[in-house]
Amino acid sequence: MGPIGQDDGVSPTPAFDIRLYDTRRRQVVDFEPLVAGRVGIYTCGPTVYGPQHLGNMRSQLLPDLLRRVLGVAGYQVRFVTNITDVGHLTDDADAGDDKVEAAARLEGGSVEAIIARWTDQWATDRRRLGCLEPDVVPRATEHIAEQIAMIERLEERGHTYVIDDGVYFDVSTFPRYAEFAHLALDDLEATGRVENVAHKRHPADFALWKLSPSGVRRLQEWDSPWGVGFPGWHIECSAMSIKHLGERFDIHTGGIDHVRVHHTNEVAQTECALDVHPWVSVWMHNEFLDIGGEKISKSKGHVLLVDTLVEEGISPLAFRYFFLQAHYRQQQAFTLDLVRSADTALRRLVHHAVVARDALDGDVSSADAARTAGLRSAFWDALADDLNAPRALAVVSSVAREPGLTAADRWSLYVDFDRALGFGLADAVDPEGADTVDVADVPADLVELLERRQAARSDKDFATADRLRDEIVERGFDIVDTAEGPTLRRR
Ligand code: AMP
Ligand code: ZN
């Protein structure tokens, strides 16, 4: 077990063990880090050819919850999630077009503009949903050399063959190929893959490097030992994850749809190239958000986005609350009404937290460890049990009505729990009595202080940020962090 969990002085939750469901072993396992006290997590990020919808964002909310809980459990977490800006084809069987290239042709824009636009949308929406910033966000196009090196290693070890279309991984050279996803290799129709690339030896063989057809100049292509072309989508994630987390690492996550093709192929090529097994200790997959049932006309024909929620007057953080209402391994049906209910529940929670904060009169120290121990352990036990967020939320709801707790007790619980919840409760404004002021109504020098504090925080210069905050407070204002950015509240 790693070192004792970070102690914020208010909520001394001690380090704890955690159990996670591992897709590879098909069971809940005790999490064991490769290096004591540290965890590396890699999550398949967005393919940036169009907007990331609310379903896609579920695949970011899972690792965000995971890294928060692991942090409180005492680990130092390194979280890497990539940008797929080349190589993801419109078809899982290596035919079809590159999604980013196809979007650029369709919209008549440059690939750079498409990539920048949708990378930005994803990054902004992650923040609006309260996700912590990743430690590294590697881009596939910036790791071409690493991908080529990995393919060369596979070639040296006899796992590849070259055909007109490109360099392919030969699954017959990896006897464990079908194990990861429990595939019936004779029935690949069932896996969604059909043989549609000429001269592929087996339908499951997959492209490591796609060659540009002669006479065709692609928008994104690179030279390689096999000719000009671009990398396969699967090799990207293998090359980027090992570059930023090491040849073996702890946890790899992604949507459940990735198990049969993308992650099966990642495992095959990495275990063959590096001669490791198991390459990744724990594989975690979020189930799908089912957005098929949404009937609201406004969103019909549109992709459901964080923006859609905002248009409907729903706070993006309500979607985070909604995410926590289902276990990540359950399919979750989306309707705007359900997210509206989550919004109401979140407002109630914020209200209770602010009431406790206002009543404690600055005296957090009177919170009593014994009085709060039951709820505290119920909450963290739920999350340590394969991230059982619905059970944890039930504990959060009981804080306000639990008899015998002082305001300081309740506040200390809310602040502690928020390290996993991520609602920003420490700085929350009461939605039922908010007295925020528009930054436009504030003296200019105060706005400047606020901006300087933001810059200091971005630079991780927390000492300066705290000093600037104190100056603002002395002038009679509190800084309140909202999904739309920081704002001021008259004291
Ligand atoms: P993509 O941009 O298509 O590569 O997808 C990004 C991530 O979103 C992947 O991990 C997918 O598995 C995941 N994903 C796609 N659709 C959904 C959905 N409806 N619910 C949850 N996750 C999804
Ligand atoms: Zn991936």
CATH architecture annotation name of the largest domain:
3-Layer(aba) Sandwich
Radius of gyration: 24 Å
Fraction of residues in H or I helices: 40-55%
Number of structural domains: 3
Structural class from helices and strands? alpha/beta
Task: Assign the CATH superfamily of the largest domain.
Answer: HUPs
With strands numbered from the N-terminus, the spatial order across the biggest sheet is 4-3-9-10
End-to-end CA span: 43 Å
> What's the pLDDT, averaged over the residues?
89
Number of strands: 15
Globally, the shape reads globular
CATH topology of the largest domain: Rossmann fold
Low-confidence spans = 1-12, 296-300
Our count of helices gives 14
Small ligands present: adenosine monophosphate, zinc ion
Task: Name the CATH class of the largest domain.
Answer: Alpha Beta
Main sheet specs? 4 strands, parallel
